[in-house]
Structure prediction request, 234 residues.
Amino acid sequence: MEYVKKQIAENFWCIEQNGVRSFLFIGTDDAVLVDTCFGGDLKAVVESITDLPVTLITTHGDRDHIGSDEQFETHFMHPAEFEIYQRKNQKKPNAYPLWEGDVFRVGEYALEVVLIPGHTPGGIALLDREHKFILCGDSVQAHTIYMHGDSRNMQALYYSLEKLQAMRDMGIFDTIYASHGQLEVPADILEEHLTLAQQLLDCTAEAIGDAPDHFPKTVKTYGYGRVKMYFEMK
Ligand SMILES: [Zn+2]
Prediction:
């Protein structure tokens, strides 16, 4: 699977592979990579952008975000994610724990850890208060979110979305960089996420289509505004 590099700002890149993104921040002494897509020689792609030592941060342990983790020696992940990372991927994470409020400084960026469980138990967002953006992994995007299967928890996702919405209401961020679909998503999409999550919890959402063939037939696609989710209504 091919990698495509895209420069977002002078020291901020994304690297896409088959519909998923990793993000790369370049500092003066080191660089920070967020997620590693499906797998392949991502290190070579990173080295074509920077020769600085790289710290890897994992937003969550789904297969499309951890494929090349072994290539990066210094790796951080939330401890609540370790178990599903290992179970889903049949490999052990060689990672240090990170915690809510930890800040990774890299050049002009300061990436603050915000725990947002729901899509997975230890999923995190990375917030830059000065630049007013947040990276939310798969939890917020103008795209379909997988909320069916191992490790998904709609109630927890709802609380995480409320937490993000409260931060957004305080003006802490206005842009979301998404791992799938549209790269730069206006933060007002959180309202659509919350409405859809609420409808799914209340069982009032109407399915708008089927889900991919590898899911059971009871899993459907639900949508509200720009947001879609694969979910099984109980
Ligand atoms: Zn993903």
Remarks:
- The first helix runs from residue 42 to 47.
- The first strand starts at residue 3 and ends at 9.
- Residues 140 and 178 are 7 Å apart (CA to CA).
